[in-house]
């Protein structure tokens, strides 16, 4: 049976779901057939995570119907979804950090049995190691390590490997919610190849990503969501990156990196660092990119630069440096605070008079940035966790940019940000750089790195190449990232 004639594995019809006043789903319909990869795209807050959480059994729609293999489903939940073969890799990594990879595998696969005896440990170990080896050969992950000790990319790999692993109840539909957001190009390529293998063998995948070329090259069908509804749906071949971008309702023009790049080698040097291979420097007003395979020392250098320039933990009126954290759940957001409090915390020095926070100045500043960076919320006093993942990331951006710090360090900051907003944020970075602010930007997306004025490529903890102006392109970055490895 071809994907077109097979009955859908799962059908969500006319689903409506509200969170208070927010219509997260507003009549959305989505069918998933066996043997197909469905690319799901849309702006931040469009409802993508919400609809996959309905399919995953974590959320029950207020209205609408659900059918599994053609039959209406009355009582659906996480257990029923698991029994149907639905597996999910969440956007916010959801493994237990204090348990090992093996123990987390046991949690995902209830069928591995009870905690009594040690039998399940060796089975779980075999299952997860086989899956990791198949999908990410040479991954270097010790399955006995606690998840909290792994890098964000390794956690993402472990979670992906768990979703595709078979402990007796094989996966039939794997939902990947922004699975490549922390993976470099090589790891992302390995995952996309796994998606195609799984689909070609009859499995189904829902693939959510803001990286349009990944969606177009990997999906059979693309579904576009906007404001809680499906607004376009075509075979992947029926879209180009531009038409997909338009269908999402985005308007920002694509940036012309070559035109925007500036030669600032004669401007004063603001940051300098030695001892990590080639010397690093960043000039005033420069956009400096850090790249190379993920986990090769880029974040460590950003942290070193931050420690050098930040005196202590007190918010200063004139901070020398601001930081946009990459792992937003672990060290970016304050989970129990409102959106406004999360935004304002780095600018309190500016927003305080005689030791008291000026609430109306905080609210004004928050409203200004809400509009400038389009944070999708009705009220900045809502809890931060009420925002979609991409919108939380925008708050972290706004937090750093709203300070007066002349240097902003960014650790893969566009993770989960939709493509329209990325372009807008890039324009904001350019405006701010023209005002002589310096940005050091680590990114796992080569396309983003190519927007910078100067780029440093990292390998094994050291800077192995410096690229400026016309030298900045994907081929040079890849060559430097792998130099000497082919031999
Ligand atoms: N627990 C919640 N409480 C309140 N509002 C919520 C909650 N979860 C989601 N929302 C809202 O529902 C809407 C849809 O969010 P959803 O996470 O589905 O968007 P998304 O398309 O996945 O976005 P992103 O690309 O940023 O991940 C958003 O407006 C979001 O703020």
TrEMBL record:
Signal peptide: none annotated. One of its GO terms (molecular function) is ATP binding. Residues 10-252, 259-485 form the ABC transporter domain. The keyword 4Fe-4S does not apply. It holds the Pfam family ABC_tran. Keywords: ATP-binding, Nucleotide-binding, Repeat, Sugar transport, Transport. InterPro entries: AAA+_ATPase (IPR003593), ABC_carbohydrate_import_ATPase (IPR050107), ABC_transporter-like_ATP-bd (IPR003439), ABC_transporter-like_CS (IPR017871), P-loop_NTPase (IPR027417). This is Sugar ABC transporter ATP-binding protein. It comes from Aquibaculum arenosum.
């Amino acid at each position: 049976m071809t994907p077109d004639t097979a009955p859908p594995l799962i059908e969500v019809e006319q689903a409506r779901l509200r969170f208070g006043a927010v219509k997260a789903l507003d009549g959305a319909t989505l069918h998933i057939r066996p043997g197909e990869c469905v690319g799901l795209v849309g702006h931040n807050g469009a409802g993508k995570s919400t609809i996959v959480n309905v399919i995953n059994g974590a959320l029950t729609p207020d209205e609408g119907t659900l059918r599994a293999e053609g039959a209406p489903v009355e009582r659906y939940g996480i257990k029923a979804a698991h029994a149907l073969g639905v597996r999910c890799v969440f956007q916010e990594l959801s493994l237990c950090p204090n348990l090992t990879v093996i123990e987390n595998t046991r949690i995902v696969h209830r069928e591995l049995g009870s905690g009594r005896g040690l039998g399940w440990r060796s089975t779980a170990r075999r299952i997860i190691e086989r899956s990791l080896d198949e999908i990410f050969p040479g991954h270097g992950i010790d399955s006995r390590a606690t998840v909290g000790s792994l890098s964000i990319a390794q956690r993402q790999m472990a979670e992906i490997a768990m979703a595709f692993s078979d402990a007796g109840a094989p996966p039939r539909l794997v939902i990947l919610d922004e699975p490549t957001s922390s993976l470099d190009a090589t790891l992302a390529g390995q995952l996309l190849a796994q998606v195609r293998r799984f689909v070609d063998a009859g499995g189904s995948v829902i693939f959510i990503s803001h990286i349009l070329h990944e969606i177009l090259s990997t999906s059979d069908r693309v579904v576009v969501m906007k404001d809680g509804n499906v607004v376009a749906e075509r075979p992947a071949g029926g879209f180009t990156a531009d038409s997909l971008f338009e269908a999402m309702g985005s308007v920002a023009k694509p940036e012309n990196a070559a035109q925007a790049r500036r030669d600032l080698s004669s401007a004063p040097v603001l940051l300098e660092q030695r001892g990590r291979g080639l010397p690093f420097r960043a000039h005033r007003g420069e956009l400096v990119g850090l790249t190379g395979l993920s986990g090769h020392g880029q974040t460590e250098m950003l942290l070193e630069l931050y420690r050098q320039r930040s005196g202590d933990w007190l918010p200063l009126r004139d901070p020398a440096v601001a930081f946009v954290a990459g792992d937003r759940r672990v060290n970016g957001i304050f989970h129990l605070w409102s959106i406004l409090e999360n935004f304002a915390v780095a600018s309190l020095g500016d927003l305080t008079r005689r030791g008291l926070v000026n609430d109306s100045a905080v609210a004004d500043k928050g409203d200004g940035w809400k509009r400038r960076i389009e944070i999708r919320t009705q009220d900045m006093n809502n809890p931060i966790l009420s925002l979609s993942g991409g919108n939380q990331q925008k708050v972290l951006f706004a937090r750093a940019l709203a300070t007066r710090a002349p240097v902003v360090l960014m650790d893969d900051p566009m993770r989960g940000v939709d493509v329209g907003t990325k372009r807008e944020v890039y324009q904001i970075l350019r405006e701010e750089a023209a005002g002589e602010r310096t940005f050091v930007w680590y990114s796992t997306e080569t396309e983003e790195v190519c927007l910078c004025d100067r780029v440093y490529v990292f390998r094994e903890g050291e800077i192995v190449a410096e690229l400026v102006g016309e030298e900045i392109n994907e081929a040079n970055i890849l060559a430097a990232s792998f130099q000497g490895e082919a031999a």
